[in-house]
Write a structure and sequence with these properties.
By secondary structure, the chain is α/β, with parallel strands linked by helices. It has two domains: about 280 residues, 3-Layer(aba) Sandwich (UDP-N-acetylmuramoyl-L-alanine:D-glutamate ligase); about 110 residues, 3-layer Sandwich (Rieske Iron-sulfur Protein), CATH 2.102.10. Helices cover about 25% and strands about 25% of the residues. A hairpin with a 5-residue loop joins strand 12 and strand 13. Helix 1 packs across helix 7 and helix 7 packs antiparallel against helix 8. Bound molecules: FE2/S2 (inorganic) cluster. FE2/S2 (inorganic) cluster binds next to loops. The site of FE2/S2 (inorganic) cluster has 10 residues, from loops.
Length: about 400
């Protein structure tokens, strides 16, 4: 276990889940709303804490309700908040995030009117007590001084930085760090077409640093000091659930592996794997639970063609309806496309064995069991969302299929 200090931002995210990305100047209803901890470094620490490290956050908070909510949520995740800087004026930074249910993409509108951590606040922290310092590449006013004292007072502890957006003067500070995390957004905003072009450029700014550049579904490129860039691919996910925080998860898992002194290629691979895992679930909690996707949700011997069985499915947004059809088990999310409520909201799901349909108990929409299409009712022609299953031929255990 390492003691890790993260310096950057904490944000209250309001996440709105939408079925289609909104058109400008239009109105649409969100399917779901969640509040969550956001901000890159706060996310990094949430994951690092789950990976067994002792994490402290250095960021600013106001004194409003959003700050209270964040404080409670961070404390519940055992993040040490003793280095938070509070401001009476201003409001806690907030992000309004639209998550597209079709592909898990996230579009963020951020608001802040709160100052960032000032140098004097940072200078009072006993940084020598930490094993790793990770900075967000922002807050240029104070960052230069912070990196200077970190470099001066730390003897062996690595300093890492994330470059998300280009900022004036940022690259001139990179000689002070050991590890640089960057990615597609930084490359794009800086005019680099490829990860290797960006790494070449950063190597000229910071020849002493290890550089790791994540590139979404294409995996990541990385280079040790003075070495040529290498690539670690990742397996693309056909249908990500939620990509928000995937990059932050990548950084956390890579830092964790570097702390464990794994070779760089292995560390980047660990980052890719956990980021991929994150995209298969909502939020960052319980990321390491290996049973989340592989716990059987039911057994085939309990599924019949005369009754719909509704079971919880960890990692999915809704329960799952299971029913036998032609010796196959059909599975759909228990979510009526008419009003986004469970099919059994009012009563059980009635089955018509002659028509081979099942009925939503709320307004009597009939869905074909075979393909989930509504054949009668208020959401005619709309479809239930199918769920892919894997069934163990020996035990009959039913699992949600790995994506
Ligand atoms: S909510 Fe299912 S038919 Fe109206």
């Amino acid at each position: 276990m390492a003691r890790i200090l993260g310096i950057g931002n904490v944000v209250l995210d309001t996440q709105l889940f939408v079925n289609t990305f909104p058109i400008e100047d239009s109105e649409q209803r969100a399917e779901k709303r969640l509040f969550a901890i956001g901000g890159n470094v706060a996310n990094n620490l949430q994951v690092l804490q789950q990976l067994g490290h002792d994490c402290a956050l250095c960021a600013t908070l106001a004194t409003d309700n959003a700050a209270k909510r964040l404080k409670n949520a961070l404390e519940a995740r055992q993040i040490d908040l003793s280095h938070i800087q509070r401001f009476i004026q201003g409001s806690t930074p907030t992000s309004y995030v639209q998550i597209n249910n079709q592909n898990g993409s996230r579009t963020i509108v951020h608001f802040r009117d709160l100052p960032e951590v000032d140098f004097d606040h940072f200078a009072k922290i006993e940084i020598e007590a930490f094993d790793w310092l990770h900075f967000e590449g922002r807050n240029l006013e104070a960052l230069s001084g912070m990196l200077n004292i970190a470099k001066t007072f730390l003897s062996h502890q690595p300093i890492s930085i994330e470059l998300e957006k280009p900022r004036d003067g940022l690259e001139s500070l990179l000689t002070q760090v050991n590890v640089i995390f960057t990615g597609f957004a930084y490359a794009q905003a800086s005019g680099f077409q490829t990860a290797t072009d960006l790494i070449d450029h950063l190597q000229s700014c910071a020849p002493q640093a290890t550089i790791i550049c994540s590139w979404g579904s294409e995996g990541a490129w990385y280079a040790a000091p003075g070495a040529m860039p290498c690539h670690q691919a990742t397996q693309a996910l056909p249908k990500p659930v939620d990509t928000l925080g995937a990059g932050d998860t990548f950084i956390a898992a890579t830092v964790d592996a570097l702390i464990a002194q794994k070779p760089l290629a292995e560390a980047v691979s660990a980052g890719n794997q956990l980021a991929r895992r994150k995209c298969q679930q909502l939020g960052l909690d319980n990321l390491l639970d290996p049973l989340v996707t592989r716990k059987p949700i039911a057994n085939i011997k309990h599924i019949t063609n005369s009754r719909a069985t509704v079971v919880p499915a960890p990692g999915l947004q809704h329960k799952v309806v299971l029913i036998k059809h032609d010796n196959e088990v059909k599975a759909y999310l228990n979510n009526c496309p008419h009003q986004d409520v469970p099919l059994d909201e009012a009563y059980k799901i009635d089955i018509n064995p002659f028509e081979m349909t099942m009925k939503c108990s709320v307004h009597d929409a009939f869905f074909r069991i075979e393909d989930g299409v509504c054949v009668e009712g208020p959401c005619w022609r709309e479809e239930l969302t199918p769920v892919d299953l894997e069934i163990d031929p020996e035990t009959g255990a039913i699992y949600i299929a790995e994506q």
